[in-house]
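Need tokens for this chain, all 408 residues.
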Amino acid sequence: MKYIVIIGDGMSDYPLDELNGKTPLEYANIPNMDKIAKLGKCGLTNNVIDKYNPGSDVANMSIFGFDPDKYYTARGPLEAGNYDVKTSENDIIFRCNTISNKDGILYDFNASHISSEEAEILLNDLNKYFTEKYPDFKGKFYPGISYRHIFIYSAESDKISDELCSFETFPPHDILDEPIDKYTNWDSEYSKLIKKIMMESYEFLSNHPVNKAREDKGLNPANMVWLWSQGVVPKFDPFTSLYGIKAAVITGVDLLKGIANYGKIDVIDVPGATAYFDTDYVAKGQYAIDNIDDYDLIFVHIEAPDEAGHAKNVEEKVKAIESIDKYILGPIWEYLDENYDEYKIAVLPDHPTPIPVGTHTRDDIPQAIYTKGGKADNVKSYTESNIAKGSLKKEPGYKLVNRLINDD
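Here are the structure tokens for all 408 residues:
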């Protein structure tokens, strides 16, 4: 038995005036997803239980089969799982965005999708700045992809570690066009230190040549770092120990690679997987096909619909959904049908990223599972409203892998 899970990040949405009252899934030309819905079993699920923010961290942990209540510590540590960094038990890991600060307002959480090369220069220079100015500085920035990075602060005691983990930080994509001071109004000693680091980064980066060049090109400057979702390194059980099968993931996002690394799920790197609108859909589909013989289950994750939701870009969201259907789901399904007598394909978002909201919500998401030779719900099409009419009982998101393995 082979299993494929297609994750269209943030794919589900609300009805939009721009699409004549349809959601992007209802509007898009997605014959393969529609066929999955008609020939498979369908139903709503939710990958984020109420105690957590509806982020991609908890949502994708759930899809990968890891119960957030057992394994989740924070988003920063999950991303660090894809960095070659040695950490101690008192190291506190933050997710770090390179953002745009304009007159004290957080007006761009990704600085016009800064390139990885530019961001690396900025963060390396920021490390030099802090270590030269403060020789005993306990923190370090680690460049990642585009605007997504990590910051590690080495706490000297459990007390400091606990304090660094105890104050609330906020995802920058949730507080666009809001005053920065409103969301950094912390009062403990080490929370104030974190704010000082963020604000001092603004002083240094505002005059950096990379940002001056970006502004000359009409791009938003990455003139500040935003530190959030901090915690310690989690301890995962290996995926194979939990489920008895071998799995791999295809993604362009460090967060998902980090989760996979902690859970001993192999990461299949795909050239051209950018985690943005320009990601190579064809390559993602082909790499899944090329590797399916070596694995029982492959997760194929596509970030582009989520990025379109954050950008409130209807055209790009529809385009991304159609590309997933045409270049990833279609070819993979055709290959499986020609080469395997037993296989299952699941299609689902991790969470909604609705265009009107511009960020994640905790609404239920549509899930469809096709089993070759299996029972069908005859759901008309893969849409939010139609999938809800299917026969699948709603279960916590982290039970998906069990459902794939054990359900008929």
